[in-house]
Predict the structure of MerR family transcriptional regulator.
Amino acid sequence: MGGAAGPGGQAWKVGELARRTGLTVRTLHHYEQIGLVLPARRNSAGHRLYGTEEVERLYQVLALRELGLSLERIRELLDAAPSDAATVPSLGDLLAEQLVQVEHRLRALHDLRGTLTALVATARAGTGLDAPALLELIEGMTTVNETFNAYFTPEQIAELEQRRATHGDAVTDVIDAWPALLSDVESAIAAGTDPASAEAVDLARRWAGLLHGFHRGDADMRDSLYRMREDNAEEVRAHGGPSQEAIAFITRAQQAHS
């Protein structure tokens, strides 16, 4: 379980809390510096200790960040006077909302798992595939394709398909590089990194490099990508794409050194 018992109940050192939450120690130190999540106390060795109340507050911070709120706004909400408490989602409300999202994802995954399990068994048995089940899969793929086709011309789509066929490994490398970059950008934002700093500029350069790997300097291709992202921001974010906060951070970094 981790954590150490203390006068106020179970407590975690900053390193333990970072490990359990997936955050960095730097991020937790930053939260402390800006008064967002303060350790409950320090032990005899001077180590920061976080208790149950601090863990609950940290959860609220992370949940509100998922809703797109800035750290400054989150602090204002959580530190609001009792008379303004109604404006702050309670821990129960946040947990309930997250539960709804998780259950929705589980239902979708359960349905997909059932369909794929049946198709795999049928295909391996060589008895013919279930057409209705295949239609369900096609329907899901069609929804994605329709969104894509609404923003890219047939010529652009053909070019992308040709590029993937010719440079498959390079295309895969670009796609695989995004999660690490987005994680680094979110960590920089959480740590309060100045968009004009050298660190932010390096992130902006990596960001521009990956985007160039997609549009290859084609202004029309780039504009189509941006329109699709802006018009479907929630869906893009739900599938692992950048948050509006991350985009704003990179934009400021680019503008600072343009």
